[in-house]
Amino acid sequence: MTTVTSETATPFPAVPFSEALAVWIKVGLFSFGGAAGQIAMLHTIIVDEKKWLDEKRFLHALNYCTLLPGPEAQQLATYIGWLLHGVRGGLVAGLLFVVPGALVVLGLTMLYVAAKGVPLVEGIFFGIKAAVLVIVVQALLKMAKRVGHTPLLYGLMVASFLAILVLKLPYPAIVAGAALAGALFVHPATESFTAPAAASGWLGRTLVTIAVWTLVWWAPVVIAALALGQGHVLTEIGLFFSKLAVVTFGGAYALLVWLAQAAVEQKHWLTAPEMADGLGLAETTPGPTILVTQFVGFLAAYRLPQPFSPMLAGILGALMTTWVTFAPSFLWIFAGAPYVEDLRSNRRLAGALQGITAAVIGVIAYLAVWFGLHVLFGQVGEASFGPFHLPTVDFKRFDIWAAVLSVAAFVLAFRFKVGMIALVGIMAVAGVAVKLTLG
């Protein structure tokens, strides 16, 4: 027996909503391992075990989600839920993918600010920084396998790396330039699909969907602006992360580059070591790695709390950040999914995607350098030569123990193939041992 969703007019197995709900709860609670691990888990459950989608249909959905800004694994879960049970299914799948991890990250962030300065906590995060450096390098290597091997794409990687390291160009500008170059000069092979029969009658419903989800997305930002003023930190957080949600192609690691530029270097909401701590929290909890944004939003509001208490302001900042980070994902899926086949058969769009992927590799390489310098030296300066800028360090501040832990983390990850969660745990224990030994 099969059923047909009103949105797609495509047959899928008749899946009881209660059974799907149980699966989405399981995914939300155990979606560790970053986007790659989460997508692999979705494939195992949806394709191999439940057989709700076949391989081709799963990959087709994944291909569409890679075109979108934002967390592709969460968007894939939303897309699959939508296919099976319409908007209700998409909402449940997408929310359950995020909420458990968001609650855990919020709790750990509150503990982080409350226990800062405690030797045990300081040691844990000292060790985690070494693991984070390895995680970023692993992400770089995984991303490099997703782009074609042509001189143009290699050139885009190098150009993007230099553009952000030497010229300090903003991340959105780099993405836009790479997309244009890819659309004009990269010509990947594309597959042809037959557009769903229901898509032709979707224009009116699509416009309504866009209007509703745009309102949902921006409502808390508008409320904050009216109640607290345009210059209040909650309004700034809403505006900043809303813009970020539109340009975060390439996942959380590419997003961190913009965070490093804006939240750390320009807005001074947190420091580079704190950013590494936030990434460590996000990597070791369920849910998308992009939940590191919640950590940033919490600290930003916590440090500029008026008229609230610091802890309440931090919670509101975290909620605002999470809302505007993930609400757009529902808009992209519910409005765009009916036209996904037409999008995937567009050669120019496919070329733009490859260009963006190449640029993302370049900016993640910059992120690895940026994190590495801050882990090893603590503070990083800058030397300017006209329009050119280069990072500088004080070699007297070189942290030998940070270097030892970093080398150990690389050996564990690349020589002994220790998994990410285990690696973070081992390095946290090692960090505590170092801090307690040094007093």
From TrEMBL:
- Keyword Secreted part of the UniProt annotation: no
Cellular component annotations (GO), alphabetically ordered: plasma membrane
Q: What Pfam families does the entry give?
A: Chromate_transp
Where in or outside the cell it occurs: the entry states:
Cell membrane
Question: InterPro entries, from UniProt?
Answer: Chr_Tranpt_l_chain, Chromate_transpt
Annotated membrane topology is: Multi-pass membrane protein
What does the record give under GO molecular function?
chromate transmembrane transporter activity
Sorted keywords for this record are: Cell membrane, Membrane, Transmembrane, Transmembrane helix
Q: Which residues cross the membrane?
A: 21-47, 91-114, 120-141, 153-186, 206-228, 240-264, 311-335, 355-377, 398-414, 420-438
Keyword Transmembrane helix found: yes
Q: Which NCBIfam families match?
A: 2A51
What family does the entry list? Answer: Belongs to the chromate ion transporter (CHR) (TC 2.A.51) family.
Q: What is this protein called?
A: Chromate efflux transporter
